[in-house]
Amino acid sequence: VCACFVTEYILFFILVTGVENPPKNPAVIVIAEIKDLRQTFEIEIWYGDVNAWVEWIKYTVQSLNHSNCYACASGQPVAQVEPLPLEWIKDSQGMQCMIALYQEKTAWGNEACKSLSLLFPPIPEMDAKIPPAFSMAIGNHTACLSRQGVKATRPIGNFSLCSETLNITEDLAGNYSGLGIPRADLWWYCSGKILWSTLPSNWGCTCALVQLVIPFTLAFENTHRERTKGA
C-alpha cells in the first residue's frame, strides 16, 4: 500500500497495489510506503488521529467495491450526516426490517429483509469506523425512533429533525431495546457530536438511522491504449 502526500493538504493514496506508474514529480509529491494503516505517520491535516481518517477513507472506498485506484480528498474532509432514504409511512416493512437487522444478523431469516441485509451487512463492533470529524445533521429524517418510560433510563439525545418517528414508549410496541448488531454504512444519531453503531439497551429519547457522506474522487489508471490507424 502506498501513500502520496500533495501540497496544500491534499492526500492521495493507493488502496490496493497494482496501479502502475504513479506520479514521480518530487516537486509536487512525496511517496511514503505504509506497511500498516495503523502505523503512525506525520502529515499536516490537523487531525490528532491520522490513521482513523485514513482507515475511514479506505473503508468507504472498499464498501464501493473498488480497487487499484487513487482515492483523492482534501486534507480536512468532513463527513456529512445524511438521512437514511427509508420512511415509516411509505416503507414501514423496510423500516421494521432495519430494526430487526439490528436485533438479529439476518432478521431471523425473513426473506423480505434479505435485500437490506445484503445492502447493510453486519460487521464486528471493532470495524465500525467513526470518522475523525463529521458535520451536524441536516435534512428531513424519516427513519426515527422515540423511546421514553421506565426502561429508558439513559437519555442519549433528542434529535429534532425527525419528520416521521415511531414512538416505542409503550411496552406493547415491541422489543426495541436490543439494537446491538452494527451494520455497515449505518449509524444512529441522537444529538451533538456522537454517532452510535448500536444503541444501549436502556437508551431513551429520539434517535435517527443515518448514513455518512464524505466527498472524495476516485481516479483509475486507464490500461486500455487506443490503437493507431493501420495497426
From TrEMBL:
It is a single-pass type I membrane protein; Peripheral membrane protein. Its main location: host cell. Keywords: Disulfide bond, Glycoprotein, Host cell membrane, Host membrane, Host-virus interaction, Lipoprotein, Membrane, Palmitate, Signal, Transmembrane, Transmembrane helix. Residues 1-18 form the signal peptide. It is found in: Host cell membrane; Host endomembrane system; Virion membrane. This is Uncharacterized protein. It comes from Phasianus colchicus. The lineage of its organism: Eukaryota, Metazoa, Chordata, Craniata, Vertebrata.
